[in-house]
Amino acid sequence: MDDHAVVRQGLRLFLGLDEHIEVVGEASNGEEALAEAGRLHPDVVVMDLMMPVMDGIAATRQLRRAHPDTEVIALTSTLEEHKVNGAIEAGAISYMLKDASSDTLADAIHAAARGEVRLHPEAAKRLVRDFRGGEMRESLTPKETIVLQLLARGHSNRDIAADQGVSEATVKTHVSRLLSKLGLDSRTQAALYALKHGVASLDGVEV
User: Fold this and answer.
1) What's the mean pLDDT in 95-106?
2) Which contiguous run of DSSP H or E holds residue 140?
3) Residue 198 reports pLDDT greater than 60
4) pLDDT above 70 coverage of the chain, percent
5) 8 phi and psi, to 5 degrees?
6) How far apart are CA 23 and CA 87, in angstroms?
7) What pLDDT, on the 0 to 100 scale, is given for residue 131?
8) What are 103-154's pLDDT values in tens digits?
9) pLDDT band at residue 201, thresholds of 50, 70 and 90?
10) What is the CATH number of domain 5-130?
11) DSSP β-ladder status, 71-76 and 94-97
12) Could you say which DSSP state residue 203 is in?
């Protein structure tokens, strides 16, 4: 979703080279993005942040509320702190710059479809520095702490389940509980909380 037709054409062209990615639609502004997401139900939306009519942050927030199974990748040309923070708080699972290589963006799309976080290195540093996650309301159990560490490393529920020898349903329960305890809204915020509070290191995050 981008207001520049040339950018959309370029994205469609090189993403179409990946046989595991199907580009099902495009939009030139935030309102169109919401309408297309409602019509097409994509697994992942690549969202520009600076668009007319409705910007990408507002569109991401509304899209995630209406279609929680659709992940959003913020793809933009800026690392302004209010944009980075705004996109993640709105529910974007990843934050990438438009100068990212086609392989990097394709990897981010595949990762988002699996529920994994990908962040531009500088965006990750700024988010760790500026993120204001809720204080721990209750102590996490040892298992929840492990799950939080694995989330911070970008692992999906399936990966965590395999690593810990439990079902994906059990992992979902752990994730739901730790988000509630920490007063957070998303996996990405949980990963940032883990980094900010020393539960995991920045080196462990996929960027």
Assistant:
1) 87
2) none
3) yes
4) 87
5) -60, -40
6) 22
7) 53
8) 888 999 998 998 888 888 777 776 666 555 445 445 888 888 899 888 888 7
9) low
10) 3.40.50.2300
11) parallel
12) G
Residues 6+ apart with CB under 8 A from 178: 140, 144, 147, 148, 190
Q: Considering only CA atoms, which of 119, 179, 121, 124 is closest in space to residue 147?
A: 179
Q: What angle do CA 106, 193, 101 make, to 5 degrees?
A: 20
Question: Cα–Cα distance between 131 and 195 in angstroms, integer?
Answer: 10
When pLDDT is cut at 50, 70 and 90, the band that residue 82 belongs to is confident
- Residue 137 tokens, joined: 């309301």
Backbone angles phi, psi at 46, to 5 degrees: -95, 115
128-143 b/e (C-beta count within 10 Å ≥ 16 → b): beebebeeeeeebeee
Long-range CB pairs of 52-58 (<8 Å, 24+ gap) are 52/3, 52/28, 53/29, 54/29, 54/30, 55/30, 56/1, 56/30, 56/87, 57/83, 57/86, 57/87, 57/90, 58/30, 58/90
Interatomic CA distance for residues 186 and 163, integer angstroms: 21
Q: Hunting for tokens 């988002």 — which residue is that? A: 112
Residue 74 φ then ψ, to 5°? -80, 120
Distances in Å between the alpha carbon of 51 and those of 1, 45, 70, 140, 142?
9, 15, 20, 40, 43
The domain segmentation of the chain, as residue ranges, is 5-130, 142-204
Is pLDDT above 60 for 2? no
Class level of CATH domain 142-204: mainly alpha
